[in-house]
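Reopening: structure tokens for the D-malate complex, inputs below.
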Amino acid sequence: MFLLLFNESECGFSMAILTKTKSDAEDYMKYKNKFISALALTTGLILAAPSQAATVWKVAAGDNEGSAQHAFGLKFKEALNTGSGGKYDVKLFMASTLGSEQDTVNDVSLDTLDFSILAVNNLTPFSPTVGIFTLPYVVQSLDDAVTLTQGSVGQELVENSVRDAGVRIVGWTYTGFRVLTNSKKPVRTLDDLKDVVVRVPKNEIMIDTYKAWGINPTPMAWSETFTALQQGVVDGQDNPYVTVNAMKFYEVQKYVTNIRYIFSIEPMIMSEQLFQSLKPDMQKVVLDAGLAATKASETFLIENEAKIRQNLIQHGMKIVDPANGEKEWIERATGQVWPKYYDSIGGKDKLNKALRALGRDEV
Ligand code: MLT
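Re-run output (same inputs, fresh job):
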């Protein structure tokens, strides 16, 4: 007597046998060979080699689905999958589910996380030269952001981040100007700002910018910001329209001021250890996917920013412009903050190199 057991698995199927005696085993072998021939003849079944499962990397992101970070992540996933012939894939963990943006830099640096997409201001504490993108009023348009990130300034920052933090920037998300939102009142002047409690990222340049504007901001992790706004721990914050919308800040914020002090640039960083473990052709696939996602991010912003602004208005937000073309805000921020950070961005020359690349006067 023998019993045949069939086990369907990823690799096709296997047959096992339960026998009692040696003659049972011989009967089984005869039966098995006949069975397989019959199966092949009658069904034309081909026992294919197992298909290899893709390696799946983890990608953390600070913002919700629907954000510019999400659009970037989806394009990166698609391009990586196609470029690697299905051998590599990523899983996106949105909305800070893998930790605050600054925590994810540590994790990527230690190679306990593969990738993170985060605002550049949250990378600056780990690699100070990227602070050039957080210096107020340096980047004044999407074109400026593209010129700097995709040119020699950006390339130098890629190398510096590997050196300083063990993370490699493989692409750039463009999210638009960080506008000021608050729950109290329309803010047009620095005088209006005086009694508004504003959350800022834990970034010295941004803290000093608000100080130059006359208030002491509240540094706080991005992952805690919505709750702090909801509970009235802080009255306001700044982030681009696209982010304000994706994070549903319109539920807890009423007023928007169109300041243009930082154009939000949000790199995707990768563990340098992981990058170096890849063969050169696979490194190229990753970098090409990063570039494809960078280009898609430009298109996402161009196609969606105006619609998203309208959506914020439909949700009841009141949008105002700063008084006098933002003159006082600009003068105070550039006058007081720029000189303080020349050293940390690598010297005044680095700022002048960026200004030259943008066709602007040197300082
Ligand atoms: C922050 O305010 O900390 C970041 O800009 C959030 C983000 O990544 O959108």
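Residues 55-130+141-174+266-303+344-357 form a domain with the D-Maltodextrin-Binding Protein; domain 2 fold (CATH 3.40.190.170). Residues 60 and 98 are 6 Å apart (CA to CA). Marking as resolved unless the reporter disagrees.
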